[in-house]
Amino acid sequence: MNILSVASEVFPLIKTGGLADVAGALPLALAPLGIAMRTILPGYPSVLAQLKDAHKIADLPDLLGAPASILKARHAGLDLYVIDCATFYDRPGGPYAGPDGRDHDDNWRRFAALAKAASEIANGADPSWRPDIVHAHDWQAALTPVYLKYSPAGATTPSMLTIHNIAFQGQFAPTVFGGLQLPPEAFAVDGIEYYGDVGFLKGGCRTAWQLTTVSPTYAEELLDPQFGMGLEGLIAERVSELAGIVNGIDDKIWDPENDALIAAPFNAGNLKRRGENRKALVKAFGLEDNGGPLFCVISRLTWQKGIDMIARAADFIAAHGGMLAVLGNGDPGLEYSLTSAAERHPGRISVRIGYDEPLSHLMQAGADAILIPSRFEPCGLTQLYGLRYGCIPVVARTGGLNDTIIDANGAALAAKAATGVQFSPVNAHGFMQALRRTFRLFADQKTWLQIQKAAMKSDVTWAASATQYSSHYQKLLARVP
Fold first, then answer.
1. Which residues form the domain of 445?
2. Known binder of ligand: residue 15?
3. Is 306 in the same domain as 393?
4. Tell me, what's the pLDDT at 101?
5. Does residue 212 sit in the same domain as residue 330?
6. Residue 172 neighbours by CB under 8 Å, 6+ apart
7. Nearest 5°: phi and psi at 328?
8. Same-domain check for residues 353 and 447
9. How confident is the model at residue 385 (pLDDT cuts 50, 70, 90)?
10. Distance of CA 129 to CAs 1, 6, 75, 99, 228, Å?
11. CA of 427: how far to CAs of 177, 298, 330, 374, 420, in Å?
12. What pLDDT is recorded for position 190?
C-alpha cells in the first residue's frame, strides 16, 4: 500500500511542535506493516540545506502563480518529496512567521501550494510512484482533498485528514479564492466557503473521505461547541467517518537507556541513576536543591496550555519546598508572569525563554513531574515523553491527556496502575488541588517509585496506533469504485 503524507513540518528536518514529530514517526511505524509512506513538505531553506542527493522529478511552471519543482530525496529513513519554490519558501523566519513573529501575509498561498503540489503527485507527477491514499495533516495541508475532489484524475483517490488541533483552521478573506486555481463551484457550503471566508480546514473536513484526530477523547470533544471551534456541526455530520487515534512517540529517540542528550542513562530497574540527571538539571537552571519535588514545564506559553495557572501556582510551589524549571516561549504576558516569579524566587524557579531540544530531554530525565494543565489538548506528546522517562505527568482531564494518563486515585494506586495525576475541573482551583496531591505523593517515596515504574512500563510507541491507521487505510481502499 502506498500512502502520500502531506505536512507543513516533519522531524528531524523542521519542527515547531508535535505535528512534526507525528509526520516524522508515522512512516517509520507503518513500514513493518507493509505500508510505504512518502511525505511531501515545503522546501524551506533549512530543509533544502539538509538534503543530500535530492533530484528533480517534476517541474510545476505555475504553482499558484510561481515556478516550482518537486524534488525527491531520502533523509533519516524518510522518503520525501520537497517543493522547491523560492517565491513561497525562501525567506527568513520560521515555517509560518517571519523573524518578527508575525504570520507571513501569503500563508494562504504558501500552504495552498503545498496541497496543490500533493494533488499533482496523486495525479501522477512522479511517473515511478503513485499513492493509493493521500493523508493530509492539519489546516496547512487541508486543501489537498479539496484539490483532489475537483481534479478529474484525483477524484477517486481516497483521502484522509488528521486534525491535530482544530483551533488552527486557516481562515482567510474571500479575496484569496481567485488565487487558489479552484473552480467557482468550490466556493460553496459543500466546499471551502466558511461564513463568507475561505476555510482551509473546513474545506478539508467537508471533502476528505475520512477524518481522524489524535485521541478518542478529543474526537468526542470536537462535537462540543466548547472544543469544536465552530466546526462542531460539520464534524457531527461526519461523525461516522471520524476516528480518534492516539499519537505515539519514537521510542528510539526518546529512550532513557540510550539517550546521549542526558547526563546518565537509566531504566525502570535502575532509577537511582536518575538522580544524576536531576543534579545536571538543577545546575543547568541555576536552582538550589533542597530535596523537594522538581517540576518542569516544556511548552508553548499560551492560554490553551494553561500557563497562566502555572504562573499563579509558582509562589505555592516555591513556598512548599518545590522547584520549577520552565522551557518555552509564547505569549509575552505569560512569559513576563513566569520570569517575574523566577525573580521573586531565585534558586527555586528558573525560566528559559525559547526552545532547546537537548535540554528538553534532560528535563524529562531529571525532573520529578511535568506540569500540563492544558484547557484542551488534542493528544499531547510531552506527557508521553514523561511516562517514558519516569517524569510523572500532572495533567488536565481533557483530550489525549485523559486517554494516556491513569490518575493516582486510591483504586489505581492499590492496583499499582497509576501513572500520573489528573485533575478536573480544568481551572486554577483544580490545578492547585492536583499540585497538593502531587506533593503528598512525592513525600511517600515508596508510592512515588511505584508510580514511576508503572509510568515507564506504559506503551507509548506507535505500534498500536500504526495498526489502527492501517485498518482505516484498508477500509478506504475498499471504498474505491
1. 271-456
2. yes
3. yes
4. 86
5. no
6. 108, 197, 198, 200
7. 160, 175
8. yes
9. very high
10. 11, 15, 18, 37, 37
11. 40, 19, 20, 9, 18
12. 93
